[in-house]
Amino acid sequence: MRIAGAALNQIPFDWEHNLRNIRSAIEMARENGVELLCLPELCLTGYGCEDLFLSDWLPETALAHLQQVRAWTHGICVVVGLPVRLNHRTYNTAAVLRDGQILGFAAKQFLANDGVHYEPRFFVPWPAAQTTAVDYRGETWPLGDLVFEHRGVRFGFEICQDAWQPAHERPAGRLVGRVDLIVNPSASHFAMSKTDVRYQLVMAASRTYHCTYLYANLLGNESGRIIFDGEVLVARNGHLLLRNQLLSFKEVDLEWMDVDFTTDLEPAAEIVPLPAPDEYLELNQAMSLGLFDYLRKARSRGFVLSLSGGADSCFCAVGVAEMVRLGVAELGVELFKSRSGCFPETETVVQQEGAGGKAGQVVDASPATTEASVLTVNQQLVQQLLTCAYQGTVNSSDDTFNSAKELADSIGARFHNWEIDEEVTGYVSKIQQALGRELTWQTDDLALQNIQARVRAPAIWLLANVQNCLLITTSNRSEASVGYCTMDGDTAGSISPIAGVDKDFVKKWLRWAETELGYPALRHVNALQPTAELRPLEDKQTDERDLMPYTLLNRIERLAFYDRLSPQQVLAMLEGEGTGFDKEQLKTYVRRFYSLWSRNQWKRERYAPSFHLDDYNVDPRSWLRFPILSGGFAQELAAL
Ligand SMILES: Nc1ncnc2c1ncn2[C@@H]1O[C@H](COP(=O)(O)OP(=O)(O)OC[C@H]2O[C@@H]([n+]3cccc(C(=O)O)c3)[C@H](O)[C@@H]2O)[C@@H](O)[C@H]1O
Ligand SMILES: Nc1ncnc2c1ncn2[C@@H]1O[C@H](COP(=O)(O)OP(=O)(O)OP(=O)(O)O)[C@@H](O)[C@H]1O
Ligand SMILES: NC(=O)CC[C@H](N)C(=O)O
Predict the structure, then answer these.
(1) Last residue of a domain, one of 480, 511, 538
(2) Spacing, Cα 574 to ligand 1 middle (Å)
């Protein structure tokens, strides 16, 4: 039997869009002789409908739309994810359709409730071994713990989290001997290296439960924060039959495999491990797709970025250039442009860059009649999609200016340069007048730093508004942890692409990107120490002097909020880890971390939406909840 999974790039309750993708997946599958097709979890509504799952109307509308899908299923068996509401409870289900009929709804038994997932808020888990009936306009279908048969192949379900349960709980254990195939429609968020975990789950299930396992994940940045990698896997008795390229820019990624269910296959002696995932590459692909989807789904015309020439803003600039490079490599120029929604019909692109071309290459054959024609096609696209501005003060250095300008030029971004000293002086003198005293670095250090960061916000916002663009804010996870940022200053913006990764990772990634992705202009930033450049230059301000070494900050953050240790336990762990710091220094850093962490929860509550990229993040709306006002670990820190 030819079985298939299709990763779909959906949008919460964008019915037209979601149904179009579902229809094209089914049509493509039928054209290619697929007999059974699995579409991802909740693909009809989108996974991220949040509290709308609690309404009556959303599941009702989904069921009404499912009736349209029936007509597309002649000659094929299709699994479509949607919520079903019965007696004021919403169930997360996979509908099975064939030949215009609905055969039933398999219901999810275990709900994801960790990290970025919050399913028990919306859904009720379905009890094992039970079924009920759904009545709709004179028809009745079964719903619950169901087994189906298609052309002699018996199949049952695990719906995403079902497969992540311990062996004694997961549905697969009870399906042994009753089915030939387990189908898993999923909405499993991207995190670096996570594909390996998923691969192990699917491979081990097929081996342990002696079956074929078909897995299909959602694709893309569906609703703002979570990115799905569109993984499709087929495994049989511990042998991998199919694994696709992840994080495609396509709307629909259909993958199929022929499985001969009539012959037995010797179970694999062991599961062949995947090569270790390359996290730098993975992040690049996820961030590029995350930005592309955010841009088009927000119906914006591009991005604006305050480019300091430092690590964070350079990372964001390269992120947009990579979005173009990877998007064009996969979709081609015309499809990339039309899918982005950022280019009016009249625009023409003079020449297409070869797939996978490195950034910064010049297209020799371009007619040299206009300035644009000496840019590569990718650079021309970046020019349309990214506007940067360097906003210097007396405290800015030539190093950062050169870094910003050269990077912007090399990727093709529009680059502006202006100074903000006049505005800073204007505000400072107003407050001096109001207070009747001078503001000095001795008495008003932080306030004088913050006003510079804040004064950068209005002009860059104005530019974003005028161009109908999204303003990128450049915060990373480390500065979010300790509030090392000025609220309404450098946090100003509507999308925060790198707030999910730590500063040490940012620095390492940039070094990798300089050589591996071909961005020689990054050599400037890669030679710089991270600095806010908010104090007078002779002060030689650096982030790490203000805070602590970033590697240590990351370690404390992870121990405190991923491993959930107490301050005392964190200190004890650090002491045993050979950090190179003595006990008193470590105490100082642990105290500093926890007090800055506690004092700055309100800032984390106000960050722009950010992507989930690492195995955890500190965003209170997607991963880590913490009180805004608290005891601030006063007793615990005093006891260290
Ligand atoms: N619990 C709470 N709930 C609500 N608001 C609270 C609050 N606690 C203080 N606040 C408010 O917070 C204000 C202080 O916050 P805010 O004005 O943001 O500034 P603040 O956190 O005092 O200082 C900003 C820090 O970030 C660093 N920085 C700034 C800009 C850029 C960079 C860089 O790396 O490039 C670094 C700078 O060196 C400084 O250490 C207070 O005036 C108060 O109004
Ligand atoms: N001179 C500047 N011109 C334009 N934007 C600036 C300037 N200085 C700071 N910013 C904005 O403020 C943000 C915060 O500064 P921050 O120092 O945290 O990041 P960075 O400069 O990108 O990297 P690094 O910390 O490694 O120097 C910058 O990313 C940038 O968006
Ligand atoms: N949608 C889900 O059930 C997701 C669950 C699972 N823990 C994952 O991260 O993939």
Answers:
(1) 538
(2) 28
